[in-house]
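User: Can you write out an input/output pair for a complex, sequences first and structure second?

Assistant: Here is one pair. Inputs:
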Amino acid sequence: MQTLKEVQKVKKTTLTSAFKSVGGEMYALAEELYPLCRSITGAGTRDTLEILKHHIPLVMSKIPSGTKVFDWEVPKEWNIRDAYVLDPLGQKIIDFKKSNLHVVNYSIPVHKKMSLQELRRHIYTLPEYPDWIPYRTTYYKEDWGICMTHKQFQGLNEGTYEVHIDSSLESGYLTYGELLIEGEQKEEVLISTHICHPSLCNDNLSGISMATFLAKHLMGKKNRYSYRFLFIPGTIGAITWLSINEQKTGGVRHGLIAALLGDTGPFTYKKSRRGDAEIDQVVQYVLERNDKRNKVIDFVPYGYDERQFCSPGFNMPVGCLTRTPYGEYPEYHTSADNLTFISADSLEGSLKIYLKIITVLEANRKYINILPKCEPQLGKRGLYEAIGGNNDARKFQLALLWVLNMSDGEHTLLDIARKSVIDFETLMEAAFQLEKKKLIKGRREKGDQ
Amino acid sequence: MQTLKEVQKVKKTTLTSAFKSVGGEMYALAEELYPLCRSITGAGTRDTLEILKHHIPLVMSKIPSGTKVFDWEVPKEWNIRDAYVLDPLGQKIIDFKKSNLHVVNYSIPVHKKMSLQELRRHIYTLPEYPDWIPYRTTYYKEDWGICMTHKQFQGLNEGTYEVHIDSSLESGYLTYGELLIEGEQKEEVLISTHICHPSLCNDNLSGISMATFLAKHLMGKKNRYSYRFLFIPGTIGAITWLSINEQKTGGVRHGLIAALLGDTGPFTYKKSRRGDAEIDQVVQYVLERNDKRNKVIDFVPYGYDERQFCSPGFNMPVGCLTRTPYGEYPEYHTSADNLTFISADSLEGSLKIYLKIITVLEANRKYINILPKCEPQLGKRGLYEAIGGNNDARKFQLALLWVLNMSDGEHTLLDIARKSVIDFETLMEAAFQLEKKKLIKGRREKGDQ
Amino acid sequence: MQTLKEVQKVKKTTLTSAFKSVGGEMYALAEELYPLCRSITGAGTRDTLEILKHHIPLVMSKIPSGTKVFDWEVPKEWNIRDAYVLDPLGQKIIDFKKSNLHVVNYSIPVHKKMSLQELRRHIYTLPEYPDWIPYRTTYYKEDWGICMTHKQFQGLNEGTYEVHIDSSLESGYLTYGELLIEGEQKEEVLISTHICHPSLCNDNLSGISMATFLAKHLMGKKNRYSYRFLFIPGTIGAITWLSINEQKTGGVRHGLIAALLGDTGPFTYKKSRRGDAEIDQVVQYVLERNDKRNKVIDFVPYGYDERQFCSPGFNMPVGCLTRTPYGEYPEYHTSADNLTFISADSLEGSLKIYLKIITVLEANRKYINILPKCEPQLGKRGLYEAIGGNNDARKFQLALLWVLNMSDGEHTLLDIARKSVIDFETLMEAAFQLEKKKLIKGRREKGDQ
């Protein structure tokens, strides 16, 4: 367990002064990653991981195309160098170099002239948002497509168009990055974020940036838990990791999917499938106290990679903590999810919330009262006199009594916070003092070292 | 389990076109049975069962008077041929042939002249409803009585009256009817209705008619469960059946008491004593979606034969589904509960509700995901492409994901409907498709064959 | 179990006519005890117990100073004969004989002249209530102090003061009183009240008086449970009793801390740490029906001696039933908590509530239906005919059916009262009649003889 001093250091130093520029650094990382054309495989994704390695010592795994992963198999590797469309006058009306969203992700190579009629069958637009380019993929069906603004689509004249997609879809690798920060215990907290979206910011450069800086922060500390960070392509990446690392899943005591963390909305936490896992309780507690607008919703079997971690054969204690949930803002999966849609402040606020959650997770234990019959005499141990008579002192004394009374090995500090309506930090301090005086001790848990 | 096709056939064919006249037929049966003077024993009850045999192959049981049935014994058989009262002028002022309610049910034979004062001690009226004749019984105390309108009672003059009740109370039989429709499984759904009331329609020709047509319908189908229908006199009939068939009670997985199904009120379901039996959950679900005015109430140990089925020594999963509950409408147990008080539409509506409940019961299973680790790849099985992009398709895809995720052998389809807020029929269809693709299988239950 | 007759006798005789003067007697006892200077040890406390012995045969226990009791030890015995303060003019401005609150309880002997400046460091007042003297203690730190009104404090002139505290703090005894009233069963109901406060009425002469008269009442009756009354100094007395009587704690099936029972406020019940102990259910039921203003609150680990009885090593089913809770009225722990603050009516009302609770506790049992299959025939046992047709009779018949149906050995009468919304007394009567007719029997509990 962290000592109180360390926690306070996190709280006071890290979360205020030291963080003055963290949001800016987080934003800068997103900015650096923005131009790359990521996908579930390919060079853009690998380059993304290489940039992250400037911040944290990621270990890269390369899984060959065709590898069986549960009911799926690792797809061919997709790479794209360039793409454009020439209109009947030979003018370049679509240019991949201007926006990689113009090409449906995983489009097969195309070099072909065609009528407008034929071209139209491959064009995707957003009639409701005529200035935005949609984001589309065709991972598991060999096809191709061009995304453009609806405004541009409406201006297309009849005639012969020329489509060039200089892509390749060949046997290769699926690549993901992983980082294990070892703690006092082998039991792990899993933080997973998806890295497969091209030039889209909130979904999910925000998650990538937050996870990177969270890992960076935790690397500098002595932690109770071990922390495992996954930077993986959505769905197939999670399935691949789970397939290869099945034996590690039992060691995950808490987990969070990090995504959609750069917009200005309040937080939404989607509980794990278990619904009452410790991570569910802790995130709910932190969010409730942070902002009344934050929301906690029940598990649903769609969304991000919690779908895989919470499939019934795993049922891991993994929830998903975002700001505005996916699909609930119009910019979602469009060219409007760009660098203006996210902000340094929002990214930093997201990092702070993740850190608060980790502070509570690290300190949340069940204690055992060593002198459980009647109250111990606090006065002779200086826990009564020391505290004078003001309000804070009284609150602290109540915290001591609550921790003593509830330390029967069945109640966590968070349970006590709920029952007593005393804030978690005060109870942490009380537990720290009581442990120092040998009045309580932490309960050994399965998985503790 | 019914295939989806069969269910839809029920839903579309049976419940609309084929039902155009079912309400009429149900009403006609009530009309045919109305004149008979039923009781807990005797010819009227036997004749009633004989008429039902024109519709369904009832098996009749005759239990001799004096048979010990738990704490009770089968009473003497009561029969009545005629009854009348002559006033001081010799005028027939009460005539059994005009209404069998005029004679207190189970009255002993009487042939006697008496003063008005003496007669009065045997007269029952309803001062609050002066035009209605009350329904009274004296099954377990040898006595006699005359029921009349309060208006007529107030017009009686002093003088000598002559009372003739041509009844008999002799050793004989208690008779009930029973029908077992065998299904794929031996486990049974019990539908029980009481048949002991004379010329009263809602209580309970409506129940008799509904149960008859429900049985008729189920006989024409291949059912998962076996269905046992009981047409029994109230209280003593249930006690008798339970006493003789004690070893069969363990095979009853769900049960409903059918009564009061012809009036125009919304439905009221009284839960089984267990309170959370599957039948309780299913009926609640169906009623909630059918009409906001429907009500579900907790078990109380009075009412109809659920009193016996839910006595603590049996505690069977048997609830009671009526329209307006007993005692909550003024016509209850009076001559106003006649053929104008019930309607073909209400009877048909009741049959439909029972059929909907049975549709859900039949399909409600716990499934086991055969590929529980991560999501299976739906696309390669045509469960993704097949469904296009419209709203229904999206809803159906969510249904597939919900069924897959919750199919851990612990959740029924109804549990999934509650959690997902997707309607049961869509989940049925999803389960049907997933089972066809060998992605899930039904969990074997104790009692499944 | 008490017979119904006995219960009704309590209800009608004792609680109305016989009680006409009980409140007066209770008040008179408080009046008699008021002048004594009680503390956690010493003559005042012993004298208090001697006076109680005029009412009930208390057994006194004397535990020597220095005895180890769990984490504590029995303190030195404190006695005080006189105390006064002379002002610079030699006038007696503080006189212990006028109010024993003037001296901080457990003050060491003092005979000393001092400046006002030095004296001030030992003076305690209540600026918010300038006419009241505060009550202060210094049990575990050898010190001394003078309590006075703030008004008097503000009038003190510079000069030399003379302080005389003729007290002693020497090896001696901690004394407490105990009374066991044996019942049919060895299992006990514990009633504990603290006796350590000097001239303060609500806290806690009211508790002492109530407990004394409750004991007196129960001694005259044949009870199901045994009743143990403790008259002990707060905290150290409870710790001492528990330390000496650890092996008896398992026999306590229900317990109440009695305190603050003389003011005019409604009742507040603080639940035991278990939260759903039978005592918690019973008190909640009685309070709800007694007055809408009564409150039930969750356990908190501070307050009176429930702190010790509900420490995690004991976790006894002991709640605390007061009127206005401690600290929630301004007179608390001041000279204003005097004989005008409590009343005969309030004391009597408190006794009645405790008696009602005991009536329910005594009668609250789980029964077993001897004929659990179907309903027994009530008519042939006179339980049907006897009751005619009025409302009370109908209610009583429903009570019979409820008790029969729920008597599966799992439901207490109180559970049935909750489910049926029939009042407990009617259900008691129904259970009494059914037991007489050998239709139900009480379930043997662990601890029953």
